[in-house]
Amino acid sequence: MDEKLSRKLRILADAAKYDASCSSSGAPGRKADIDGLGSTTGAGICHAYTPDGRCVSLLKILLTNYCLFDCAYCVNRRSSNVKRARFSVDEVVTLTVAFYKRNYIEGLFLSSGIIRSPDHTMEQMLLAAKKLRREHGFRGYIHLKTIPEASPWLIEEAGLWADRLSINLELPTEKSLERLAPEKDGASIEGAMAQMFERIAEAREERRHFSPAGQTTQVIVGADDTTDAQVLRTSARLYGRYDMKRVYYSAFSPIPDSSAVLPLKPPPLLRESRLYQADWLMRHYGFQVEEIAEGGEKGMLDLDIDPKLAWALKNRHLFPVDVNHAAREMLLRVPGLGARAVDRIVAARRHTALRLEDVARLTSALRRAKPFLVTIDHHPKAALDRQDLRERLVGKPRQLSLFA
Q1: 39, 30 in Cβ contact below 8 A?
Q2: pLDDT in tens, 326-335
């Protein structure tokens, strides 16, 4: 790789690090023809880690970090004093193919600042994907970050070449968007999401290719005074209206020469983690936003304990639940019991009445679940009434080990 291209790669790969929504899960399995290259599997791609802990190996770059917009929270904003660079379409294609052949990557995540116009930028991005597919027979994973201000037909064409499309909502409320990114319009962003939702649904019915891994979005947390409850309400709306595959939460990171309207310090990184846990409860455990918020104070999640335990401690009157008779939906609300453990319990109790030692074999988190469960040999009602139950379950903070 020549020095000029290497310099561009350093700048534009670093500029892309703030975008968390680059998961590769959900892509259809496929393999290249004899003259092509690349493949995908439904299980996703490995080798690099996203902020929420999943493993992927994507060439994650911006087409350019020049931008016409001046969003206050963005390091690549128009007024930012950062090193700038721009790839040509052919350079993106060359890098992707070369890295794939060296076994460095299995896919491409391509985003961009806005250059010339939203339409021009979107054209360049989808042209890179089209060249990879048509000229190089690339069958690996491609995720394109689409631009809501671009023409609808350009976004539709992008879906023909990409496995996944995404549009960043950026901020959780229209008020915050108007204050920190006045050149962006929340209505147009959600309009583009609605368009993608309709096209994806149509393509599935007709069994044709259009962004088969769905769409995702990203929300910046901590750049404004939006509460966790407000963030989660926005996420719930996006999941419900647009069948969003994932909402990613990115903790605000202070940037050089930032606006006076931005906070001087980042939010606790644990806040991002708690939002992911709460998001999981909404999507897979049947929790409503208001129930999750109930576990915290003033709309903010409890940073010291996970949101499921926080909810359970504030709803002790609903516990303990009997593992031998309780509905699956209630067992899912027991701290320490994941969906797999609950399914194992439901399956096992069809054949025998479960004792505490049986539950211990079905979950690795019995210590946390124990005060909230009843078995034929365990009746912990008194434990739920203890004033120090929270402290006993959480324990003293300790340094996490990489090898635990």
Answers
A1: yes
A2: 999 999 999 9
